[in-house]
Every structure is written in C-alpha cells, then in structure tokens.
Design goal:
The protein contains 20 helices and no strands. By secondary structure, it is mostly helical.
C-alpha cells in the first residue's frame, strides 16, 4: 500500500484521521498511530513487520547499553576535555576510557547488526552475482524480496543509536523508538527523520485548524503531483526510451526526450511522496524536515545535493563524512572521504554497479568543484594580503552570467547522471550513451516522438513549471497579501489601544486640573475629549474597513486554496481509478 493507492486515500487515511481525532490525549493518539502504522506496514508483508520489530528491539537495547556506559564515564570525569589525561586522576581516566570504549563497542555491534540485515536482503544477490563472475562459477543466486522501506528505517535506527552515543539525545523506551521507526508517514520512502527532531512532538503536540488545513493541502498537492505528473512522465520516458531498447529502435531525439521525462519523473515522484508525508504529519501535529528545495534550480553540483534528498545528504555528512574527518583534513584524505561517501551513496540507492558508477560520477564533479573553490579561496586570501580591492560597479552582469552558466552546467551534469542511474544493464547503458553522443547510425529524429511531443506540449510546460518555485512563489505572494492585511489591522488596533490608554491618563491629569481652574479647566477638558472622540472614531472606522478588507483577502485566499485542494484530490482520484484496470481489491493488495 502506498500513499497514491485508492485503498489508502479512500479507506485507510479517512479511518485513521477519524479514529485519531475522536481519541482524546496524546498518549492514546500515539497508541492509535502505532497500531495504524503497523497495519500500514503489514500490507508489505507481515513477516517483514516482525523483522522491523526485532531490529527496533535490538537497537533500543543497544542504545540503552551505550547510554549506561556513557553515564558511568561521565560520572567518573563529568568535566572531561581533551588533554585532561595529562593531569587527571589515573584511576578516573582508566574508568572513563574503559566505559567509553564499551559504549563504542556496543555502538559498533548495533550498527553492524543493522547493516548486516540490510546487506542480506539488499545486497546478497548482488554479491553472489559478482562472486560468480569473478570465479567463473554459476551458483544458485538467492532471490530475497526486499522488505518495505528497509533502506530508510535502517538509516533512521543508525541515526538514533549514533545520536545516543554522541550524547545528542537520551535513550527512549522500546515503545517510543518503535513508534518513531514504524510511523507510516515516512517509514517507506523517507524523509530520514531523526529521533531528536520529533522527540518533543511524540510527547506533546497539537494540530490546530491552520496545521490541519496546511497539511491537507500539502498532501493533496503531493498526491496530484504523483498521479497526474510523475506517473505520466514515467510513461512517456518508457515510451520514448524503453529500459530494454535495442540498437536502431530509438532515435537521438527520442533518447534525449526520454531521459528528460525520466529526470522530471524522479523529482516529481520523490518530492510528491515527501509532500504527502509532510502533509500527513502536519495534520496530526508533526513537523518533519523538508527533503527537497527545488534541486533543478541549483547552480552547481554541490548546490544540487544541498537541495536534493536533503535528509540523505545530511545523514552521510553527519554519520560518515564528518566521523572520517570531513573537510578538516589534507587534500588526499579529503578526496578519499568523498570517494567513500559517494560510493556508499550510490550503493545505497540500489544493488547494481550502475548505482555505484552514478555515485562516483558525482564524486568526480564534486572533487573538481572543491579544487576550484580551494583555488579561488587561496587567490582571494592572496589578494587580501596584498591589499588589492575587488572591482565594484560592473560586477553585477558577470555575477548574473555566472549564476546562469552554473545553472546550465548543473542541469547537464544531473541530466546525464540520471542516464547512469536508469540503466542497470551496462550494455544498454553504453548503447544509450553512444546514441546520445551521436556515435551510432541512428536517425536524429522520427515522426512518432515529434507527434508525441506535440500532443503533450501543455503537459510538458506544466511539468517543467512544477519543478521550479513558480507555484510556490505565487502562493507566497498571496499569503503575503493576507499577512499584510492582518498586520495593517493589528497596527491600527494597537494605535487605538495606545491612544485610549493615553487618553485615560490625560483624563486623570485633567481631573486634578479642574480642581484648581474650575469651569475654565472643565471647558478645556471637554474640547480635548471631543477631539479624542473624533480621532478614535476615525480609527474605529478605519479598523472596521481594514477588517472587512482582511476578511475578503483571507476569504479569497482560503477559498482558492480549498478549491485547489479539492480539485487536486478529484483529479488524482480520477487518475487512480482510471489506472485501476484490474479489480479493485486485487489491484490494491
């Protein structure tokens, strides 16, 4: 069951939300969330739910042992810092070192267990194939069904136990770790949420009307993006450049168009799932981190990976790259660190050499960009030492041109990267690259792909707009109008309140004056009071007008958003029903 399946949208989600909101209290709602999450995961296989339960139990126990050892070490040397061993108590230092080593040992055992399970299910067949090729044998290659979302929840568990070891979080009980791990919002396709990011909301959260509305809209947007855009992009990619195409079957233009639609499909599909996950979380009070930030607007490969699958990049940065030394090392060690990280990144995406090649492909470009950045930094420092000043005035145009060229460069690199990502068969991959580099006798274009492009021209425009921040920009501008209307009304209310407070103080002072001046003082007070009443009356009229304006603007904004949400839902449901050419229950299960 996926978020874009009819059974989820029409049955699972409505029933879950109904039960969730009828139950009072966060504790009871957490129980409901856990039960529904386990039911959601059980659709991918009850036996694999048992595997998830065991892995979570092992991780919880490992984290508990790690925390116990860390606490013992801290008790011996609560203010321990690097270098203290020179003058500290030898016995305390030995006790501290012993417990830290034991904590590290338990961390290693726990992570090794999690990675071993992942390797057995995801990479055993891949390893057997390569061993057979290496030794020229033909053993029976194991074929294991990959448990649902194992790549994501293994990384979540690794981040949890690592954060306990580093003292970033306190260990939790099995119930809370299981709830964090199996939560159906992000158990199958991420984002890779860390325990510390939602620990507070597990115990204390509230979903107001605004949160529910925002979450429902975000989910509907993601559902429409997936069913209306991503799926059709996938169909067009397969039509124009089939996975198993033969030489002579595809033209050059068809190969480029097919790769372009695959590029669009990957972002629209993955970001759509993130939209749905974040929307579902917000509807019940969780605020998961963003996972995409319009990566196809990047101006460099480095920038692309700051925008694409942000939680995965952050995981490898914090739990692999930095522990290996990060960038605070020499050039050759830095290159090695990047090589390891990107080889692992590629391998994480799939058990095939093309994924490793894809990861190393980015390693090459990132290494080149790092060398350029280092060179520019050295040049800037040299100029600063020599006291040279950079030219101003005309720097605007070159800066814009640099951003534009950087954007084109990043898109080209990413485009061909997705070609490597798509074809697992190296023979087909090489043929696709030869075709796209004009090294075959294939025709440049044909009638079929041109007609296909003409028939889908409006869809192409919509898909291209969907990968840019254009719609987000429009939404932000509309929201800004609402916020400005609220702010204008609030400013005048504050101004009226301040004037009323000042008037009250004036009246108290005038009361004292009238005691001494008699009728003359009373006449002056009446005139001042009348002036204030006129001023206050104008402010109240202005506030009333601003309130009406704010209500109109806010009403239009929320009405349009509601209409769009319903439109997205209806169109997505129609698309899903249209795709269900087999009986409903059979298609869903």
């Amino acid at each position: 069951m996926s978020f874009s399946s009819l059974i989820f949208v029409a049955i699972f989600l409505p029933v879950f939300l109904l039960v969730y909101y009828l139950i009072p209290g966060t504790r009871a709602r957490n129980v409901a969330l856990l039960l529904f999450s386990m039911a959601f995961y059980a659709f991918g296989g009850v036996s694999y739910l048992g595997l998830l339960l065991v892995m979570t139990l092992f991780t919880t126990a490992g984290a508990g042992l790690i925390a116990a050892r860390r606490h013992k070490a801290m008790e011996a040397m609560p203010d321990e810092e690097e270098g203290d061993e020179e003058f500290g108590d030898p016995e305390a230092i030995r006790f501290y070192t012993k417990n830290i080593r034991m904590a590290k040992f338990f961390l290693g055992i726990t992570i090794a267990f999690l990675l071993a399970v992942l390797a057995v299910f995801k990479y055993s067949g891949f390893a057997a194939e390569n061993m057979a090729l290496l030794f020229g044998t033909s053993p029976e290659i194991p074929k294991l069904i990959l448990p649902l979302g194992i790549s994501f929840y293994v990384f979540k568990l690794i981040s949890y136990v690592s954060d306990v070891y580093m003292g970033r979080i306190e260990p939790a009980d099995y119930y809370h770790v299981l709830l964090y791990t199996v939560m159906f919002h992000h158990v199958t396709q991420g984002p890779i949420v860390r325990y510390g990011e939602i620990a507070e909301e597990l115990e204390n959260r509230h979903a107001g009307t605004e949160d529910i509305a925002d979450g429902a809209f975000r989910f509907s947007l993601g559902l429409a993006k997936k069913t209306l855009l991503a799926d059709h992009c996938g169909n067009l990619a397969e039509t124009l450049l089939p996975i198993g195409f033969q030489p002579g079957e595809v033209t050059v233009l068809s190969a480029y168009l097919g790769s372009l639609f695959f590029m669009l499909q990957l972002y629209l599909d993955f970001s759509a799932y993130t939209d749905m996950a974040l929307g579902l979380g917000k509807m019940i009070g969780f605020h998961f981190p963003e996972n995409f930030n319009y990566p196809y607007m990047a101006t460099s490969v480095r920038d692309f990976w700051r925008r694409w699958h942000i939680s995965l990049s952050a995981f490898f940065r914090d739990y692999v790259y930095i522990p290996m030394g990060g960038s605070r090392v020499g050039f050759f060690r830095l290159t090695l660190n990047l090589f390891v990280v990107w080889a692992l990144t590629g391998l994480w995406h799939g058990s095939s050499w093309n994924f490793v090649l894809w990861g190393l492909y980015y390693f090459v470009f990132l290494s080149i960009e790092n060398m350029i950045r280092s060179f520019r930094k050295a040049q800037a420092e040299k100029k600063a030492e020599e006291g040279e000043e950079t030219a101003g005035g005309s720097s605007r145009i070159p800066a814009v041109l640099t951003v534009f060229l950087g954007h084109i460069y990043a898109l080209i690199v990413v485009f061909f990267g997705w070609v490597l990502f798509r074809f697992q068969d190296f023979k087909t991959l090489c043929e696709a690259l030869r075709l796209m580099s004009f090294q075959t006798k294939a025709a440049f274009s044909g009638t079929s792909e041109i007609l296909l492009l003409q028939n889908n021209i409006f869809f192409v425009i919509l898909a291209l707009l969907a990968v840019t921040p254009f719609a987000h920009f429009l939404g932000q501008q509309c929201l800004e109008m609402v916020n400005k209307a609220y702010a204008a009304e609030e400013r005048n209310r504050e101004r009226l309140a301040a004037a009323q407070n000042e008037e009250q103080q004036d009246q108290e002072r005038q009361a004292l004056v009238r005691k001494h001046l008699g009728a003359e003082g009373e006449q002056d007070a009446e005139e001042e009071n009348a002036a204030f009443q006129r001023f206050a009356g104008r402010l109240e009229k202005r506030i009333a007008l601003l309130k009406k304006k704010r209500e109109r603007v806010a009403g239009c904004y929320y009405l349009i958003r509601t209409i769009l949400m319903l439109l997205f839902l209806v169109l997505a449901l129609v698309s899903m029903v249209g795709a269900s050419y087999t009986p409903f229950l059979y298609n869903q299960f």
